[in-house]
Specification:
It contains 7 helices and no strands. The chain is mostly helical and 225 residues long. It has one domain.
Length: 225
């Protein structure tokens, strides 16, 4: 009797050790914790690539990447992308022009002329970033690479060329300051819409979207370097 019970117990142990644990997600890998990343399944490869390329800000290291990105966090993504594309280091600006942040990535992005003040010597680091604002910052990175003489103060005289006059059905909702960057990034397969041929310019950009867009810039605009 004892031998039989031991045999049954051994069989159960073997069965449990061979069983494949059920995935706790919803089939589309809504959240991944691979190597500490918390992101959607569609973004995992590009999030990994962003980390490998060195454009992953430390401020996002343990963050939920499905959430909206802040201005400070996006400044980190933007300046790291610029450093990678331009192959040059950028030191934080000094003295600090802002009264509401001393974030090193913000000051680096300011020194690189990728970001500017939101008024009254403030940067609004914790404000969430819209999709058109994110496209504009990365558009400035592109201009830096294409035009060595680019300066933010003269941004309007540097043009990003694209072939079509309009791509999206909500084209008229895109702010004038962002229009050129949005269309340029879309034509170069760097940024995409939100479905139904809409761009959603005023919608929040998520952290994983920002990282994915930056990776695509490095992939698709290498000929500019």
């Amino acid at each position: 009797m004892i031998k039989r019970m031991l045999a049954v117990a051994a069989m159960l142990t073997l069965a449990l050790s061979c069983a494949v644990p059920a995935y706790a997600g919803d089939g589309i890998q809504k959240n991944n914790f691979d190597n500490g990343y918390q992101c959607s399944g569609w973004a995992l490869d590009e999030v990994r690539q962003a980390d490998f390329l060195g454009i992953f800000p430390e401020s996002l290291r343990t963050a939920d990447l499905t959430k909206p990105i802040t201005r400070a966090e996006f400044a980190g993504v933007s300046v790291n992308t610029y450093v990678r594309m331009a192959k040059r280091a950028v030191e934080p600006a000094g003295p600090n022009p802002f009264t509401d942040t001393d974030d090193a990535d913000v000051l680096r992005a300011y020194a690189a002329q990728i970001v500017s003040s939101t008024g009254n010597n403030t940067f609004s680091p914790d404000a969430t970033l819209t999709r058109e604002q994110g496209a504009t910052m990365l558009g400035r990175v592109c201009k830096h690479i294409i035009f060595p003489e680019y300066t933010l103060s003269e941004d309007a005289r540097f043009t990003l060329i694209y072939s079509r006059p309009a791509f999206f059905d909500d084209d008229e909702e895109i702010s004038l300051y962002a229009y050129q960057s949005v269309n340029y990034l879309f034509e170069n397969n760097i940024i995409s819409g939100i479905g139904n041929n809409h761009f959603g310019p005023k919608a929040s950009m998520t952290r994983e979207q920002a990282l994915a867009i930056a990776v695509r810039m490095l992939d698709n605009l290498t000929f500019r370097q």
